[in-house]
Design goal:
With 409 residues, the protein is of the alpha+beta class. The protein folds into 4 domains: 92 residues, Rossmann fold; 71 residues, ATP-grasp fold, A domain (Dna Ligase, domain 1); 126 residues, ATP-grasp fold, B domain (D-amino Acid Aminotransferase, Chain A, domain 1); 87 residues, D-amino Acid Aminotransferase, Chain A, domain 1. The chain is built from 11 helices and 21 strands. The protein has a 4-stranded parallel sheet with strand order 3-2-1-4, sandwiched between helices. Strand 1, helix 1 and strand 2 form a beta-alpha-beta unit. The chain is globular.
């Protein structure tokens, strides 16, 4: 029997891409990787990546839809590849989120407009041109790039001085060569929103014919009140007693955006006024965080579940393992050059430690940065025990980061 051929679109060829590819091999799937950074490909699965230009999504979709043998399923990792995945799937008649829904999900202004039109709670918000800084919302407010993820460039401002500083900072990020190269119109604007108080949660799920299946709800135990919004610990199962409210709000947001088929990762805040959706991304959770999730009694990874769903299998009966689990995205304490880490052996006695930073790597903290030093993973009987383990393990790690000296000309 000819193996099913799965197209995997990814912005980089990092750990998450390799995990998907290796898992696909164990399932007997034929993987085709497409990326805009094929020149750095390590080719870990013995196949050559298809080079595509992410800044030309229509052309990329035409090229990918003409591959032979034909593609029978599509998965995208990261926000930018989701648009090309949607366009390619539409050309091939394959199930995936519609292109316009994907575009709305990765543009904070369009998402807010759709949420408001659907009657969901939304803060006051406005889209502001990079050329004309203006705050029509009041204080406290949050400034956000429309299309960046991972809290990059998200800054709270409590007064006019902080607003100007935040605007200048975000504008510099959006005018950097890395972002300008994307040629995306949304990067000409900054969104200004009323600050939403409350506890923050994340929901991982898959959508089939528009219906959401919740795979996990994560608590974010650290307060995320600004000025920056660096995420650190995710814990599941959630300790929130009314999780049905979170699930219902996410289904409403999925419907409002028009997402119909594939993985989703949602972020939300909960306060006395209800659930406030922050975003719903048309992709799975990023980085190595998926390692915190296991299904079918611990025998199935999130990657395997998503692969099976992409190939048309019914995953509605699959459930998360019984144990509590969590991940800490190890924050960067200061910008500079990474030199090394001490205490890994001590931390490893408590939790699984994965250091992803490389010696000599230039590190940037939020709001400019978009990476972590690595990840800690733990499992235990309760979320409280998992949280304590992660914090204790993190306390054992001592990172060496050399300050980078500016070159004076």
């Amino acid at each position: 029997m000819t193996p099913k051929r799965l197209l995997l679109l990814a912005a980089t060829t990092g750990y998450q891409t390799q995990i998907f590819a290796e898992t696909a091999r164990t399932l007997g799937l034929d993987i085709v990787l497409a990326t805009d950074r094929c020149h750095v490909l390590d080719d870990p699965w013995g196949d050559r990546a298809v080079p595509v230009r992410f800044e030309q999504p229509e052309n990329a979709a035409i090229e990918l839809s003409q591959l032979s043998p034909p593609i029978t399923g599509v998965i995208a990792i990261g926000d930018r590849p989701t648009h090309i995945a949607a366009l390619t799937a539409r050309r091939l008649g394959l199930p995936f989120h519609p292109p316009d829904a994907v575009e709305a999900s990765r543009n904070k202004f369009l998402a807010r407009e759709r949420f408001r039109a659907a009657g969901l709670p939304v803060p006051r918000f406005a889209r502001v041109s990079l050329a004309r800084p203006a705050n029509r919302i009041g204080y406290p407010c949050v400034l956000k790039p429309l299309g960046l993820s991972g809290s990059r460039g998200v800054i709270r401002a409590n007064d006019e001085r902080e607003f100007v500083q935040a605007f200048v900072c975000i504008r510099a990020i959006l005018q950097s060569p890395e972002i300008v190269r994307m040629s995306e119109r949304q990067n000409r604007f900054i969104q200004v929103e009323e600050f939403i108080e409350g506890r923050e949660f994340a929901l991982e799920g898959v959508v089939t014919a528009g219906r959401l299946k919740t795979l996990a709800i994560f608590d974010k135990p650290d307060p995320l009140d600004g000025p920056y919004f660096e995420e650190t610990i995710y814990l599941t199962p959630s300790r929130e007693p009314d999780q049905g409210e979170l699930i219902h709000a996410t289904q409403c947001a999925v419907t409002a955006l028009g997402l119909t088929q594939g993985p989703i990762h949602a972020e939300m805040r909960l306060n006395s006024a209800g659930v406030w959706m922050l975003e719903v991304a048309a992709r799975p959770i990023g980085g190595l965080c998926a390692r915190a999730l296991r299904f079918e009694g611990g025998t199935m990874s999130l990657e395997e579940l998503i692969l099976r769903h992409a190939m048309g299998e019914d995953v509605s009966g699959l459930s998360r393992e019984g144990a509590a689990s969590g991940v800490m995205m190890i924050p960067i304490p200061q910008s500079g050059i990474y030199r090394g880490v001490h205490g890994v052996a001590e931390a490893s006695a408590m939790a699984e430690v994965v250091i992803t930073a490389k010696e000599g790597q230039r590190l940037q903290r939020l709001p400019e940065g978009n990476s972590y030093l690595g990840f800690l993973f733990a499992r235990n009987s309760t979320p409280q025990e998992v949280e304590a383990t992660l914090r204790q393990a993190h306390g054992q790690l001592r990172f060496e980061i050399a300050r980078q000296l500016e070159v004076v000309r």
